[in-house]
Structures are given as C-alpha cells and as structure tokens.
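4.2 Preliminary Data

To establish feasibility before requesting continued support, the project team ran the inverse folding procedure on a target of 172 residues. The structure was first converted into the token representation described in Section 3, and no sequence information of any kind was made available to the design step. The complete token record follows.
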C-alpha cells in the first residue's frame, strides 16, 4: 500500500493549482496509483518501487522509492497543473538517481579504460567486460550520464588495477 500525503505548504495568496481535498478520495488514489504504476514500469528497474507520494496545492509532487531516492517535480506558476505529467517527471527524476543495471541484450554506455572515452555497447551476460562494467557501476542509460561519471569510473578502474597487481604479486 502506497502512502499518499498532502503537503501543507503554509499560507499563500496564490490560487491553488491542486485541490488537496482530493487526496482522501478512493477514486483519486486509484487514479494516482495507476499513473504511478505506468511510469514505474517504464522508468524504474524491477526491484525499485514507489513507496511515497506527496502532492501539494501548488503543484509540487514528491516521490520516494524503496531505495531511499527522491524525485521531485514542480508545476510552473504559469502552467495548469497536470497530475500525469507531474508524476511522470517526478518518477523520471527519481530514475536518474537509480543505478542503471542493463539486462542481457540491452544497450548501455560506459567509459573505456584504454581511452577514457564513452562507448556504446550491448550488454551480454557471457562477456566478462560487460559483467565487470556492471559490477563497478560503469553502465549508463545515456552518453551524457557516462561522461558525467567519467572521473569516478576511471578512479575505480585504477583501484581495480592496483588490487589486481597485489593479487598477482601473491602468485610469485
């Protein structure tokens, strides 16, 4: 059972974008759960689920997942509130904080050790380098995400190489 909450945002002279009295309606809760299920299945890995939703009268939506991540969307002051778009944005933003774990046959981006450049590849369970990329968090949904994490990934590669060298010294 998902927890719904109306976020009281204090006194405001602004016209509310959302009637928070709807939160208590069974029909509204069913509608919100349907919208969440739609975007949860589209953007989140199978083991990640929305556990909390907060909607305030100014059109701010906060979602939280079972891993402790949070996604937030805010309705622009000049726009009409649209629950589905708000939930979609909040879940997409939450998904950006969730590590990407590609499935067999799925395309992903990574950082190549040899060149420090991004690389687009298809993940296969039977390929060691793909499994290594997944194990060290070197799998990304987009090239931009991979570039953003380049320094962190290169640092992990260097740490792995030092560890491998220590292991090899034990063989002598």
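Position-by-position output of the design step:
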């Amino acid at each position: 059972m998902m927890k719904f909450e109306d976020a009281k945002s204090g006194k405001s002279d602004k016209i509310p974008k959302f009637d928070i009295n709807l939160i208590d309606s069974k029909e509204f809760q069913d509608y919100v759960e349907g919208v969440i299920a739609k975007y949860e299945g589209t953007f989140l890995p199978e083991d990640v689920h929305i556990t909390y939703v907060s909607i305030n009268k100014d059109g701010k939506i906060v979602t939280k997942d079972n891993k402790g991540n949070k996604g937030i969307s805010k309705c622009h002051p000049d726009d009409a509130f649209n629950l589905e778009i708000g939930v979609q944005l909040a879940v997409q933003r939450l998904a950006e904080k969730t590590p990407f774990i590609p499935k067999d046959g799925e395309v992903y981006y990574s950082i190549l050790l040899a060149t420090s450049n991004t690389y687009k590849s298809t993940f296969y369970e039977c390929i060691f380098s793909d499994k290594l990329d997944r194990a060290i968090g070197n799998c990304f949904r987009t090239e931009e995400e991979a570039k953003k994490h380049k320094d962190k990934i290169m640092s992990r590669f260097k740490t792995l190489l030092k560890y491998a060298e220590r292991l090899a010294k034990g063989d002598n």
